[in-house]
Design a protein that fits this description.
single chain, alpha/beta, seven-stranded mixed sheet, globular
């Protein structure tokens, strides 16, 4: 079969690899019907995630059809259409019992496209399939569902819930890529007074307005002045970092009010400066996190109920075999306007 293989920093190939098989009794093998590319995949290609070794099949967001199941898998059958979560959960370790699936000690956590082969392929092995897949209703399209594999729960859990967004808050989201846009959608569920979005790309600021941002500001202007004016000089109640570079983290720390919360979502490949000389006296809470995907069932219910629309996030569509071109498009959003790209089985 064909798969997108990481060949070391800066290198990838769509090439032949062995078709996956059942390795553990709790495995399932899916035929990949729809898959997308994540900013984390770009971080891997940039060399920011050294745990990923050359030869690894990338990808951790997919919708597929079950074609084989291990003898230890309960609740799934061949032919089921499922969402494959970006997080795998053993279900029995201390962290899984607490719902912190991202920190699984039993061989799960973020493993797809990281420490085991991922889903940017014609077929994929899904470990702990009974707890790491979700059956999809017929009313939900592959394209809508695949965005619940990672970006929606990540933005919701690591950004909005960790940031404790409350009614009436002023929320600043730094970065209007897919994670930032998903943070707008899910922050709006809590009725904040203002959502301010900061980005360098005008096309992404326009997208932020369409997703529900009240105020947009270019990073090259003066976001601090905009937020101060909006809040009577206080600063933001919540600042969500959705990029993963030092400058955006430091900007979030500067934008938040005393007693406010900074929720870091971005994947960082370099150190960022923590200005404790300014922050120590301001009662600021800073959170980090890897998504647990514990909210995926609830988000799926909200999607079915029409509480939010993920379709507007998809800007480009490709057949799976054109994934090399899709990577080029996704990696150059300033030129292409790409938000999320979806690749589908032909």
């Amino acid at each position: 079969m064909k798969a997108l293989v990481y060949d070391g920093p800066g290198n990838r190939s769509w090439t032949d690899v062995p078709r996956p098989t059942i390795v553990s009794p709790r495995d399932a093998v899916i035929r990949v019907d729809a898959v997308t590319i994540c900013g984390t995949d770009l971080h891997i290609l940039g060399g920011d995630v050294p745990e990923v070794q050359p030869g690894r099949v990338l990808g951790h967001e997919a919708v597929g059809t079950v074609v084989e199941i291990g003898e230890g898998v309960a609740g799934l059958a061949v032919g089921d259409r499922v969402l494959a979560s970006c997080i795998s959960a053993c279900g029995t370790c201390r962290y899984c019992r607490e719902g912190s699936y991202g920190q699984c000690l039993g061989g799960g956590g973020w493993i797809l496209g990281h420490t085991v082969d991922g889903v940017q392929a014609e077929y994929a092995r899904i470990p702990f399939a009974d707890l790491s897949t979700y059956k999809l209703p017929e009313t939900v399209s592959d394209e809508a569902a695949v965005l619940l594999a990672d970006i929606l729960p990540t933005s919701y859990e690591v950004g909005v819930l960790n940031g404790q967004v409350r009614p009436g808050d002023t929320v600043v989201i730094v970065g209007a890529g897919p994670i930032g846009l998903a943070a707008i959608l899910t922050a709006r569920l809590f009725s904040p007074a203002h959502i301010v979005v900061v980005d360098k790309a005008q096309s992404r600021l326009e997208a932020a307005k369409q997703f529900g941002a009240d105020v947009t500001v270019s990073a090259d202007d003066d976001p601090r002045a905009v937020v101060r004016e909006l809040t009577g000089g206080l600063g933001a109640d919540v600042a969500i970092e959705a990029v993963g570079v030092p400058a955006t983290f430091e900007l979030c720390a500067a934008l938040v009010r005393p007693g406010g919360r900074v929720a870091n979502v971005g994947v960082h490949g370099r150190p960022a400066t923590l200005h404790l000389e300014d922050l120590w006296i301001r009662n600021v809470t800073i959170t980090t996190g890897l998504v647990d995907t514990r909210t995926t069932p609830r988000l799926l219910d909200m999607l079915v109920a029409g509480q939010f629309d993920t379709g507007q996030m998809v800007t480009h569509r490709f057949p799976l075999e054109e994934i090399m071109r899709a990577y080029d498009v996704f990696a150059s959003p300033a030129e292409t306007g790409a938000l999320k790209v979806v690749l589908s089985r032909g």
